[in-house]
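residues and backbone:
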Amino acid sequence: MIASNDDAELTAIREQCSKTGNFSWTSRKYQDDILRFIRSNSQSGNCVIEVGCYKGGLTALLAATCRNLNLRLYSMDISADAVSTTKTLLKNLNLTKHAAVEQSTFPEFVSKTSFFRRFSGRAILCILDGDHSYNAVLADIKAAEALRSQPYALAFHDYSLRHPTTDERVRDAIDDHFGASKTRTLIGQEMNGVGHATKAAPQEDGHWWGVPGSEGAILTLR
């Protein structure tokens, strides 16, 4: 359960993000599920990693939560504009002390930094919300496993999202790497074919949701 003081702060952050256009593509339920998981498992590591910050909407919520739990947030995106926008948002919200944002892919981040050697810990959660193509998701999973200390858990966004040409297959990548029987917790919005694009009635850009499906999923590795 979110403490009342945290809830008020997160509400204020969401309002600020709405006013400035720093929105997140994630649903409110997905955000709440992610933050609840971090709070419930705050003793399982000393940081959170976010892959794909976009405009910083979720990043700001993560930064506030990490600050309140005395954790560190590492966020990244391949877009220079996204990184710049997110940094500005965190600065305006006074959330930079416990957060670092840089332009990078996750495999690049892991290979070019001595992150765990410097901080001697592990991530409570790696939120993988960058490139959703099959091979990119596999690369991000392997990057998480390459960290000196294995993360406690991995979170995925757009878990059941599909596209006819861009090979967005997050769930397939998870199943093929960990095995389809690997236990996972579905988070965010439930995709049941009502109010969401389906294969028979896709969005204008071609995206559709597998039914039954889910917006996201969390896999606990330990």
